[in-house]
Write a structure and sequence with these properties.
The protein has helices spanning 13-23, 45-54, 71-84, 116-127, 140-155, 178-185, 216-219, 226-241, 293-296, 300-330, 337-361, 366-373, 389-403, 411-441, and strands spanning 2-6, 32-34, 58-63, 91-96, 110-113, 169-175, 194-198, 214-215, 249-252, 259-269, 275-284. The protein is of the alpha/beta class and 452 residues long. The strands form two sheets. Strands 8-7-6-11-10-9 form a six-stranded antiparallel β-sheet. A five-stranded parallel β-sheet has the order 2-1-3-4-5, with helices on both faces. Strand 1, helix 1 and strand 2 form a beta-alpha-beta unit. The protein is globular and about 80 Å long.
């Protein structure tokens, strides 16, 4: 189902973007939203608009004020009416303020007042009723809440200055409660959390950029990196709720060589604290293609570069910082319990970051590591330095179960696990550095410039 929203540009473009995102919240990929604000102005600007209108099943005129010049939007209405014909099931809707007089030329169209009750009827026509019936089992409370959100967006349409989003960004919207707080503390997000944004933010999660808003549970149902980034998002939100600045992380777009620096830049809350919106920005990184595994075509030297960096990172952060701090606490006669709990969470967070880094660098499987180190072709690692994926996953599970209170904390077992990781990491670091240095020795300097 394709919906085109005609509106007054540029004053209502941001509101229309938000309105369209929310309108498609429960539709998955069944609704595609388009509007003129999505197209760059140029020679083919009007052609693109006309094509979008001709492909649309529903046309919504976002009629916000009698004082605006609506002549261009009237032309768009006429184009859609000419395409639809008299017997088509398609719809032309005029969404207007209850206090606004509709022009006589629009009186014979389907007028929808921007009130919750009228918007509910419109939503049921899309989600419940034929011919669309996108989600017939969508319950009343979701319809009512969505209608309230759309009403709020329409009422906020007042003229303001230019505002351009230049990079992908998205909002995570939560209805706060004690239960939601517990979910966040466990490093998770509620499935019903709403995500919407602009500049093709959906592609960050492997979705079509025209699909509108998504509930978290549906958005990441098949996203392979769900567990890792869910913890990162939940941690950033938890830190923000304490009025502190959260640290960001890297994110690689699925099936792409683009890498983004993801950060939570601000959050907003209602006065009663029931609803909060968290604003995330994904800024593209200037990374050369040969830095990435895909660009290097499996180059051993590139993999060695990444392995040296990653093992150095683990040594500096996980071992020299967190393991040393944990050992210091455990050496005390009465270790500070809150500090122990915090450091377990920090250790788990570091293990998540290590996995994110290894995935982006293309060294997240034993085969890739072994190929880079030529294990089996040269001197093997010591037996006590070998560590399998199952070992790593087991240590990570120990941290997580301790963090959420699923098991009684055994801080000595945790220290032993990190010590074991440190032994393996040291061996891999030394082997990778030795191999990388050997490769570097064979590299020849460039030829001198040719004589004129």
């Amino acid at each position: 189902m394709r919906i085109f929203i005609s509106h007054k540009m540029p004053v209502d473009t941001k509101a229309v973007q938000d309105f369209g995102e929310k309108l498609a919240l429960y539709a998955g990929q069944a609704i595609e939203i388009s509007h003129a604000g999505q197209f760059e102005k140029g020679a083919d600007f009007r052609d693109k608009i006309e094509e979008a209108i001709k492909q649309s099943d529903v046309f919504i005129l976002f009629y916000t004020s009698e004082t605006y010049d609506w002549s261009f939007c009237m032309l768009e209405c006429g184009l859609f009416k000419a395409k639809v014909g008299v017997s088509s099931p398609h719809q032309l809707i005029v969404l207007h303020s209850p206090n606004t007089n509709i022009p006589a030329s629009l009186n014979n169209l389907n007028a929808v007042s921007a009130t919750r009750s009228d918007i509910e009827v419109m939503l049921k026509g899309f989600y419940h009723d034929d011919p669309w019936a996108i989600k017939p089992d969508l319950d009343e409370i979701h319809i009512q809440n969505l209608a309230s959100s759309l009403e709020h967006i329409f009422k906020g349409t007042t003229p303001y200055g230019f505002n351009f989003d230049l990079v992908p960004n998205f909002v995570i919207e939560l209805t706060m409660s004690e239960d939601i707080g517990d979910v966040l503390n466990r490093g998770r997000l509620p499935n019903e959390a709403t995500l919407y944004g602009s500049q093709g933010w959906q592609a960050l999660f492997g979705k079509n950029a025209e699909t509108g808003a998504w509930p978290w549970g549906e958005l990441v149902a098949r996203w392979p990196n769900k567990e890792l980034y869910e913890f990162e998002f939940a941690s950033m939100i938890s830190v923000a709720l304490e009025r502190n600045a959260p640290k960001g992380c890297y994110l690689q777009m699925p099936n792409s060589m683009l890498i983004y620096r993801l950060s939570l830049r601000r959050y907003e809350g209602t006065l009663n604290g029931e609803r909060c919106r968290f604003f995330f920005t994904a800024a593209p990184m200037d990374v050369e293609t040969y830095w990435l595994p895909e660009g290097a075509s499996g180059s051993r030297s590139t993999n060695l570069f990444h392995l040296v960096n990653l093992t150095w990172f683990v040594r500096k952060r996980l071992i020299e910082t967190y393991y040393s701090r944990l050992s210091e606490l455990l050496s005390m006669s009465k270790p500070d319990q809150p500090q122990l709990e915090k450091i377990v969470r920090d250790i788990y967070g570091e293990m998540v970051l290590v996995e994110i880094q290894s995935i982006m660098r293309g060294i997240d499987t034993p085969k890739e590591v072994n190929d880079a180190l030529l294990l089996g072709k040269g001197a093997p690692l010591q037996t006590n330095a070998l560590m399998s994926d199952a070992d790593w996953d087991g240590y990570k599970e120990l941290m997580y179960d301790t963090m959420i209170g699923k098991i009684e904390p055994d801080y000595n077992a945790i220290a032993s696990a990190i010590y074991r990781i440190g032994i393996a990491n040291t061996a891999y670091y030394q082997k990778a550095a030795e191999a990388y240095a050997s490769d570097a020795i064979t590299i020849l300097p460039p030829d001198p410039p040719s004589a004129p």
